[in-house]
């Protein structure tokens, strides 16, 4: 059996299933009009709304990519299904072509922690804050207050990091109820620059016996929920993703219409663009498959320049974050561009491999670098909502103000350089917050 995502054109039963977060309303439609021999829809996965820009008349163009001019968004719905073989996929496409937008791979994804290239931490939280330019944020009164940061990860220990709600792929999860692990580390690292941000626990990745895994279909459900939240309360949203695809063996081959890693039409790549379009600053860790000391989970042929930043981690609209130490040395596991969806990746570098949360000896990997950078965006969003500074404008600002370590401009190792909060504050013209004068005494 092969697990895949099936993208179906909008019908009322699918819309109802999405509204109710239930498979049940969609069941009769699927059984009577969609299902073919050798295909079994997963009833544990409810229909998920995926806004796509797919051309006039609901007909997808030959290569739609990410830019569609004036064409508006169209409702489609993702479902998860098991296929007996490739013939079953072909039958569904052939016999139900009027309803099926596409069938796509649903690979497993994992977080990006790392203790490679030496396990000992280099520096500590205070060093990260100093090198990041946090004092300049504080002088300007920027702490992330009023900004929502969704930590899409393994779950957060709410006794260590206050959480204000969240989401999980299975019902009944209480946000903040996870054991202290990778997600707690990531949330801690966001708060280095944005201690007053409102943290949301999106527990995408489940921890079992010390390992984590999720399907990309669960990531689509998480992002669809976030699109609704951002649209309902726009202005100040940051989303951090310290996870991705280590091994492309679980993906369909590049060039296949089912492919995820290099296919802009895959539903997860489409919904990532929709989340940015809704007004969220979306951060992805570049990955830990750099040429010098890649994570052992990296697939054969999935390490080093041009082969280690896949799928949404390389989406042109997101911040893709590599990793350096507080001594400005690139960490050898940090994945290198070109990216699969956009060649000029990564965008920036953040600090990693430091003594921080206490969850591990070091907050390491691009897993730590990404939330360190996301925290800076959250702090700036306190003053500059998206009606004043769109996600693309904030991205451009942080790229322009990054510290270029090599002196040669943008490169495939660290993008534009190390994120620099102090330089960003200066470029935005934010004045230091006036100190309150003590009241005069008689």
Radius of gyration: 22 Å
Question: What proportion strand?
Answer: 15-25%
Helix content: 25-40%
Mean pLDDT: 91
- State the end-to-end CA separation: 83 Å
- Element pattern in H and E: EHHEEEHEEHHEEHEEEHEEHEEEHHH
Largest sheet: 7 strands, parallel
The strand order across the widest sheet is 8-9-7-12-14-15-16
Give the low-pLDDT segments.
Answer: 54-64
Describe this structure in words.
This protein has 442 residues and is an alpha/beta fold. 26% of the residues lie in helices and 18% in strands. It has 11 helices and 16 strands. It has helices at residues 12-20, 27-34, 86-95, 125-132, 134-139, 182-190, 216-232, 267-278, 365-381, 391-400, 421-428; strands at 2-9, 39-41, 48-52, 74-83, 100-105, 108-111, 148-152, 166-167, 198-202, 206-208, 211-215, 237-241, 243-244, 280-285, 319-324, 348-351. The strands form 3 sheets. The chain has a 7-stranded parallel beta sheet with strand order 8-9-7-12-14-15-16, with helices on both faces. Strand 8 (166-167), helix 6 and strand 9 form a beta-alpha-beta unit. Helix 7 runs parallel beside helix 8. The protein is globular and about 75 Å long. The termini are far apart. Mean pLDDT is 91; it is low at 54-64.
